[in-house]
Design goal:
CATH architecture of the largest domain: Alpha-Beta Complex
Distance between the termini: 33 Å
Number of helices: 11
Largest sheet: 10 strands, mixed
Radius of gyration: 20 Å
Strand content: 25-35%
CATH class of the largest domain: Alpha Beta
CATH superfamily of the largest domain: Medium-chain alcohol dehydrogenases, catalytic domain
Shape: globular
Length: about 350
Amino acid sequence: MTPPTGTEIAVLSQGRAAVYEEPLGPAGVRVRERPKTEPVPGAVAIAIRAASINHLDLFMAHGAQRVAPPRVIGADGAGVVHASGDPAWQPGDEVVVYPVVCCWECEWCRAGQNVRCARFGVVGEHSDGTACELFHIDARNVFRKPKSLSWSEAAAFPLTFLTAWRMLTTRGRLRAGEKVLVVGAGAGVAVAAVRIARHLGARVFATSRSDMKRRRATEIGAEAAFDSTEFSKAVREKTGDGVDIVFEHVGPATLNESMRSVASGGRVVICGSTSGVKAEIMMPRLFWGQMDLLGSTMGNVGEFKAVLDAIDHGLKPVVDRVYPLSDVEAALARLDAAEQFGKVVLSIEE
């Protein structure tokens, strides 16, 4: 059952959990024990089997997100229903979490535009997160786990694939046959973008500072991959006139090169700024190039359903490495050192 109108269901992380306690980087996230309770009406309690981490968790651990500790980290989670306050879900059901915080009741949520909700946020940043043994969340955030995915794979796709799907389809208006450049291949969202763009019939190119990551990008679908330093010339030489869409999440370090890589009338879609929060751009390049500079973050519930459907038709995430929950500091350190290709996952079954 859904809760009474105006009643907000709290997101709760219980049992053993990875908790951000101090802005010390990975060392500031520690495993703690939290009390367990039964779910309220309209909520589902999920025994988490796997949760993945994102740069969001790392930024929070470094104190860059202005989130007051303590906060359980993790936006992505997959597990088994432990107890349910909603008849749609029964104990034993295998599920994944739509990682968005919203009210579900405003006109935007009712219209399926969850990202426009006044209470819009991200699980693990604006609420407690999934890196725990038992996770309580509104039943409307719960979806069946794709049967084709392992637990670690099911925990690897929600935030990054949802973000990349919205960037490419809704915001970027990607059409089959178009050319897409994915900047900073190796990050979870960039790996998702390579996979999704290929799945949707695009020609895909990528950049990375790492030889290994450039090689891996071509193995999962990119036609070619370029060094991240001044890549626009190489992109234009390879594509003839530039690309139709640049998938950008790095920010100031690459934005101008990204804009140089776009064909006339192309789009640069931005979901992040891992290299800093302020960037200078050459304005004539924007207007003479008839360019769209588009912002995007996360995605609506309908877009999450579209990702689930695409997974049922062969789309698959890339897992970099799996750590036990007790090694959360090492998992975050791998992300902090930019050693990953794909998603770093925490296994809650230890």
